[in-house]
Model the fold of this input.
Amino acid sequence: MYTIRRESSFFERFAKSLFGILFGIVLLIVGLGLLWWNEGDFVHTRDALREAAGTTEELEDLSHVRHELDGHLVHAIGEALANEQLRDRDFGFAVRALSLKREVEYYQWVEKSHTETRKKLGGGEEEITTYQYVGEWVDSPVSSTTFVDPEAKTRYTNSIRLDLKDTMVSARSATLGAYRLPTFLIDELPVSDLQDLNLKPADRRSLAARMHADPALIHVDGNCVYLGHSPNLPEIGDVRVHFYAAIEGTISILARTAKNSFEPYQAGNGKKIFAAEYGTLSAHELYVEKERSNVLNTWLIRVLGIVLVTFAVWLLLEPISVLASILPILGSLVEAGSLLVSLCVGLALSFAVMAIAWIAYRPLIGCALLAIGLLFAILLPFRKKLLPHTA
Done:
């Protein structure tokens, strides 16, 4: 372990908190802007889905190109065929699939840190940061030169057996009946573990030559190729590669016909609509799934926006907490109060912006959200009753 102790005076902390105000203002603008955009995007996507659902036609016979439906939004169910072998250039094997995905991980020394903060009388602060180094699987190589501990740069030196990249290739000759299946629909299909890896002796020798190692270091297990002595006892520099594929099979799609292929349907508001799923799904089921995805994405961005706004308000109030920290007990109380005020103000501002956005798009729902925001604003004066009292 390696420990660094850093002391900050009251004036250093106060100056830092003043700089935080500027960052807080920027963050507040970004958070509120994100919330406004998100509500509009939700409404536009929902309107586009409803427009598309009302114009969708059934493309039942895929045995030949239906020229009379050219340019129409259609729902189709059929067998998706790759019609070609997808080859991984680094590993040499080929597989008949709609798409082939490769994910690479490296076993590396990784720096972990833990910081403990101690308040001091007079508004000062002491930070104690402890660093330690552990072996972990990561998505990209880690440079040991970035480690904080000077000795760790040489003691925990990272290396890799082979430098590989994540890849994703799609079949260019894929078809759905008489229609060509474009890449944007293939990319919508989920991938699964590829189990039929078949590395030929020549491919193993080629990989071993690139690693400057023995072919015995190459292990294949299920959809994973492991480069190292033992998959159960990883060493620094080992590499493991997982392969996934979108297999041929029955799929259901929503897309606009374009001669002998498909393209995204563009709604009147500019939103592009398309879908592809494995199985026999009706147009209604596909649209229901798209609606669910729209709701989920909207809520994820709402949470992110609220967190950004709340954190921004906390940054704006931080100088008050620093001033109060001259007396540690008073500082702790003010800091707790700042957190509560930040939460209330952050929620109130967030719901207010979402409400105003909805008033612009959907007045009834917007008024309901505005009422929730006002509720948080009304509760704000009663925050003191929620704080701990000192004797």
Notes: The first strand starts at residue 2 and ends at 8. The helical segments are 10-55, 152-155, 183-186, 201-211, 283-324, 328-361, 363-379. The chain has a mean pLDDT of 88. Residues 6-50+293-386 form one domain.
